[in-house]
Amino acid sequence: MSVDTFRARHPGLVWSNSQAGEAVLIRAALLRPRFHTIMDACLEFGLKRVQSEWDLLRTEAKAETQRVESETARILRNITEGIADAQAAD
Predict the structure, then answer these.
(1) Residues of the domain holding 44
(2) Lower CB density within 10 Å: C or N end of the chain?
């Protein structure tokens, strides 16, 4: 999947800015915690990049992230565990 494919698959994330960069797309996905959207972001941009953007969001925009923190943290934890399990099986 490419950035354009990710954007096309999730057009509602940044509908007002069709040229939004990767960081904006990732942060928008994290602030609207849906498993498949965050998983797609991890597949496209890498788990470390998504987790890094989440860490930045939590420190820079505490008020925005408070309402979604537990849900997004749970989704990221499940994705991390799933990737680790898949790698261990190989």
Answers:
(1) 3-89
(2) C
